[in-house]
Design goal:
The protein has about 280 residues and is mainly α. It has one domain. It contains 13 helices and no strands. The longest helix has about 35 residues. It is globular and about 55 Å long. About 40% of the residues are buried.
Length: about 280
């Protein structure tokens, strides 16, 4: 039954592509522009620098590897945070169990994107800073809860050579895959919304769950409370496009995506509670 449903959806999508090719073309163009201007400049350099830091054994300077992971993850955002954890696991710095648990509490949008998007929605620094604090606190609370489950780790120094070319190649490959996921999910979303005339409210959630940025851009005309709740949910869950990017990175390194998914679900609940408390205050 599941297989037949999947085949039907794929065939339906193929038909819609031929029927509404202008939507496909417009969505692809928009996705490339968004990737070029908002994703690639930050993501590419972060992946290259993270890989170089790992080659230089910078993690050895931190007594607690979680601190190193959290700092880099919070500054780089997702999917860079998955690259950080995967690199440490692949180089033998942390165990598989440690890496998987770390996926629960280290997923956030990169801070530049987060601030820019929130300020465009609310245009008030007080609200923006409050929501950013709520989002970061949700991940910190998850860390405090799960840190007792982290196995002991002792770093050992192993001298590695720095290969800038390899780091650049790794960054480019990841960024191109990210571009592909953005184009795919954004195109699919627009095809179904415009073909079946999906209502405005439902289309907002469909856009945000599939591709976060498009969903966030749809919130501009909602009330402040509505924007706050929905935007925070989108930021916490992050959309299936990002989930697909993370799944690819983790699968390529033998890590378990289910831990990442668990973290996004828990974080979504926490940010909704935190947003309610912040608004009530």
């Amino acid at each position: 039954m599941k297989r037949n449903l999947t085949i039907f959806i794929i065939l339906l999508t193929l038909f819609l592509i031929f029927w509404n090719y202008t939507i496909v073309l417009g969505s692809t163009t928009y996705a490339i522009e968004m990737w070029k201007n908002k994703v690639f400049p930050y993501l590419f350099i972060m992946i290259v620098l993270i890989d170089l830091l790992n080659s230089l054994n910078v993690a050895n300077y931190f007594k607690n590897p979680s601190l190193y992971i959290i700092i880099l993850s919070f500054f780089s955002g997702t999917p860079s945070s998955s690259v950080v954890i995967s690199s440490l696991y692949k180089s033998g710095k942390i165990s598989k169990e440690y890496a998987n648990i770390s996926l629960i509490y280290t997923s956030l949008p990169n801070p530049l994107f987060l601030y820019t998007m929130l300020i465009s929605l609310f245009n008030t620094k007080k609200i923006v800073i409050t929501l950013i604090v709520v989002l970061y606190l949700s991940n910190i609370l998850l860390y405090l809860f799960y840190k007792r489950s982290l196995p002991d780790v002792s770093f050992s120094y192993d001298k590695k050579s720095v290969n800038i070319a390899a780091s650049i190649k790794k960054g480019l490959n990841t960024c191109l895959f990210v571009l592909g996921t953005i184009i795919f999910f954004l195109t699919i979303t627009n095809l179904f919304i415009y073909t079946f005339h999906i209502s405005k409210v439902l289309s907002i959630f469909l856009k945000g769950i599939l591709e976060m940025t498009q969903g966030l851009n749809s919130l501009i005309n909602l009330s402040i409370f509505g924007k706050a709740y929905i935007a925070m949910f989108f930021f916490a869950f992050q959309g299936l496009a990002i989930h697909t990017q993370v799944y690819y990175i983790l699968q390529d390194n033998g890590l378990d995506y289910n831990y990442f998914l668990k973290g996004r679900i828990l974080s979504s609940f926490l940010v909704l509670i935190g947003t309610s408390l912040a608004i009530a205050a």
